[in-house]
Amino acid sequence: MKKITGPSFFIGQTGNGLISFGSGQPDLPPPKQIYKILSSHNSYKYGLVQGQIYLRQALAKQYPGSTADNFVITNGASEALDLSLRALYVKGGKILLPRPYYYSYPHNVVLAGMKPVYYDLENGKINFKKFKKQIVGCRAVLINSPSNPTGTVQDLATLKQVEKLARQLNIYIISDEVYKDLIYERNNYLIKGSNVLTLNSFSKTYGMCGYRIGYVYAREQWLVDKIVEIKTHASMNTNILGQEMALEATKVNGGTIEKQRQIWEGRRDYIYQGLKDLGFDLWKPEGAFYVFPKMKNPNKVVNDLYYKYKVVVYDGAWFGDPGRVRFSYALDLAKIEEGLSRLGKYLKREYRCN
């Protein structure tokens, strides 16, 4: 058996009785109206590197005070982050990241030629007293709210403190908001300021992961220009069919999105209570679709559950927290129930002997 050492082992795996709590991919299908352009789409030439104007105009309507010129359409939020970091590059630059973090963040910073440094979340939350010391001397700070992997949403008062402090120190904020429509406690707060780059995508809200349509919203024109320049030589235009479908997604009514949010909230409540009943120590997620319970020997747990019980979970060490395991609840309730049942058998038979 090959030892599992990273999430790439699991990406794309399905079937054969597997219950996957690993994937960050919504199982809910995209709203049907997104597909309606497929029968008439007939454009196959290069698109604008910055992104099709009609999609950028539609996005500008969602962000007060913005114009189409403030947006670059990217290959998912992953490329949006990569391009943003490379555009912000300065020699010796430090990027302040949350820990736990989404597993790609440190790699993205290193690939951009800069150094990752960390602010440790406490029960998934920013300790602002410590944070304001750690941010000094950084080129940028990354905020991920709602968070992958913690499922936590940062308090409004804290986000406003971060917003004010970064502006005073002339430090950029990269705000990763790909789960902004999956919040259970309040509405999303858009961090403000000319020094802010907001990252988002159509993957989580609309179940369009495979179409790879994301974007960066930058307030400073030089950053937009730099991002477009880099993208010209890295990937050129983003998929134009995907952009057409993303445009249709911007027309989906809020009621449809709210119904989906309620489904996610119901799943959140179910898996949270199920894990509590099994004796796990965890906090209740406020957004996204992840729970992050404490477990000992998490890498052994990941390997045992996969090879012996056909259950996929992710090692917290991949996210900078080796004392936890990440569960995604991006699967229907019947599968969550079966997965928890298998987990319960593992706990009784093997876990306490680890």
What can you see in these coordinates?
- With 354 residues, the chain is α/β, with parallel strands linked by helices.
- The chain folds into 2 domains: 7-24 and 254-353, Aspartate Aminotransferase, domain 1, CATH 3.90.1150; 47-249, 3-Layer(aba) Sandwich (Aspartate Aminotransferase, domain 2).
- It contains 11 helices and 12 strands.
- It has helices at 53-60, 76-87, 105-111, 128-134, 156-169, 203-206, 221-234, 240-249, 254-277, 298-309, 333-349, and strands at 19-20, 71-75, 94-99, 115-120, 140-144, 172-176, 196-201, 213-218, 290-291, 311-312, 314-315, 325-328.
- It has a 7-stranded mixed sheet. A 3-stranded antiparallel sheet has the order 9-12-11, covered by helices on one side.
- Helix 3 (105-111) links the parallel strand 3 (94-99) and strand 4 (115-120).
- The radius of gyration is 20 Å and the shape is globular.
- The mean pLDDT is 95.
Distance between the termini: 19 Å
Give the CA-based shape. globular
In total, the number of domains comes to 2
Oligomer: single chain
Mean pLDDT: 95
CATH topology of the largest domain: Aspartate Aminotransferase, domain 2
**Highest CATH level, the class of the largest domain:** Alpha Beta
The percentage of residues in β strands lies in 5-15%
Give the helices and strands as they follow along the chain: EHEHEHEHEHEEHEHHHEHEEEH
Described by strand count, sense and barrel closure, the largest sheet is:
7 strands, mixed
- Helix and strand content put the structural class at alpha/beta
CATH superfamily of the largest domain: Type I PLP-dependent aspartate aminotransferase-like (Major domain)
CATH architecture group name of the largest domain: 3-Layer(aba) Sandwich
Helix-residue proportion: 25-40%
Strand order of the largest sheet: 2-8-7-6-5-3-4
The number of distinct β-strands equals 12
Number of helices: 11
What Rg, in angstroms, do the CA atoms define? 20 Å
Instruction: Show unreliable segments.
Output: none
